[in-house]
Write a structure and sequence with these properties.
single chain, 315 residues, alpha/beta, two-stranded antiparallel sheet, 11 helices, 8 strands
Length: 315
Amino acid sequence: MAALGWLTPRRRSATARSVLAGEASAEAARKSSQDTQDVHDAQDTADATAREPEFPVLGDDRAAAFFDLDNTVMQGAALFHFGRGLYKRKFFETRDLAKFAWQQAWFRLAGVEDPEHMQDARDSALSIVKGHRVAELQSIGEEIYDEYMAERIWPGTRALAQAHLDAGQKVWLVTAAPVEIATVIARRLGLTGALGTVAESVDGIYTGKLVGEPLHGPAKAEAVRALAAAEGLDLARCAAYSDSHNDIPMLSLVGHPYAINPDTKLRKHAREKDWRLRDYRTGRKAAKVGIPAAAGVGAVAGGTVAAIALHRRRR
């Protein structure tokens, strides 16, 4: 895939594969959003606290929001849920399902991304979809969302995304999950679109290879930078949300970074940088004021659901 001409100059190191992955994801996201973008009416957000300016700013069309997916918008990892759905449809054997189950258990218990587990899962997924049509996987992704993902959306994070939409801003998912699955999730949530890992296809059939590398770490920052340039966004007025320290490059790009359900390293970094924090796993309040009022309702709901689920697991 040829390099995109609208990529702005970068002021930090990034591998060529990270750049390629970011550009490919941004291009795929822009194409998919043309058919799925919803138009939302602006609503009054005057309940913002007196100590900070209203945020998100109503009618600021040069601002947008970028949300990590796994453990930020959704409990667990999208790729693992996708694997469960493919197993149900006999795409692979029981021994492979056991591997997916172990990786998902680790992710949920540890609350962090293990690089070896994630790489292993991506390699497995690529080998599984090789030779299948892109349209087939997109259709299956719709079914898998209903079966495994819809009930795992964090209400609090969903409310944060809605606050940006209500302010007239675009909202994008940014994830290492396949862009086809990420696009399904974004559309179901009423978001603008999704940046995700782009798998190579020829004549609509997966080759079993990636374009560049998985959209992870520095590649996410590349994708956000490229998309912002294409959309005419001012990153200083944009917001980004993530649970993982791996996304610090993306969070550092924007003027309004949020740590959502943060891992230990991100929590420490966020406190040092005075970033806003929100943890829906325990119902804890944000460490800094200025969260949109709409998100407060979601925070209570998200915290209640998480507390009930935890109590049941302990019984």
